[in-house]
Design goal:
single chain, 218 residues, 7-stranded mixed β-sheet, alpha/beta
Length: 218
């Protein structure tokens, strides 16, 4: 299995014509501003290792957890809670291009605000931002205020207030699809300790059902 994974890694590097840095102590000048790849192996529980190794990553990419098989939740949880870095939850089918058009879930919370701040480079590089909001937001954090903030950074956005009833996560995914979004950006919420609270409500539905990449920040 180890050799098979290394083979897939080499194939990906060749397919995308990306240089591979083999040594941990390779000089920084070897990378510069280019995109590079490197292979690392470590012993231990994946969730434990991801939390620490991920702290020097710009972005941590993990597969969408499989609820039926009970696989991947601890990995996603560790990436969000122990690394301090943004996480890209990836569907089984790889997107053709990112960031493309971004759907931005907004409720005025600190987590949503942090997602915007951390993901600003993606928002600026996007083909447009579709703000999705439900109900009222705290004073000073209206979707209109968010749109003005984004405009100050050169980001063109539009606002949609989600109507109807039912699961918010389901409505977020449905409207993101209707907006032809290539990526969903949202905060991951936690009001108490434990995985259940982190992935409660809308976040849990999105984690379980998203078929597009989701940019998550805690």
């Amino acid at each position: 299995e180890r050799e098979r994974m290394r083979g897939l890694f080499r194939e990906a590097a060749e397919r995308h014509a990306l240089p591979v840095i083999e040594e941990d102590d390779a000089p920084i000048e070897a990378a510069g501003t280019r995109t590079t790849l490197s292979w690392r192996e470590a012993r231990g529980r994946q969730a434990d290792l991801l939390g620490t190794h991920g702290r020097l990553a710009d972005l941590i990419a993990v597969p969408r957890p499989d609820r039926a098989a009970n696989l991947g939740f601890n990995t996603l949880y560790a990436a969000l809670m122990s690394s301090g870095r943004p996480v890209l939850m990836c569907p089984a089918q790889a997107p053709t291009a990112l960031p493309g058009r971004i759907a931005l879930a907004w409720n005025g919370s600190m987590e949503a605000s942090r997602a915007v701040a951390v993901g600003l480079a993606l928002l600026r590089a996007s083909a447009g931002v579709h703000i999705l909001t439900v109900g009222e937001t705290p004073e000073g954090t209206t979707p209109e205020a968010l749109a003005r903030y984004l405009a100050g950074h050169g980001v063109v956005s539009e606002i949609e207030v989600l109507a109807g009833s039912g699961d918010i996560g389901a409505r977020l995914l449905a409207r993101a699809k209707a907006a032809q979004a290539d990526l969903l950006m949202m905060g991951a919420y936690s009001h108490s300790r434990g995985r259940e609270s982190l992935f409660g409500g809308a976040s849990q539905y999105v984690v379980d059902h998203a078929d597009l990449p989701v940019f998550l920040v805690h």
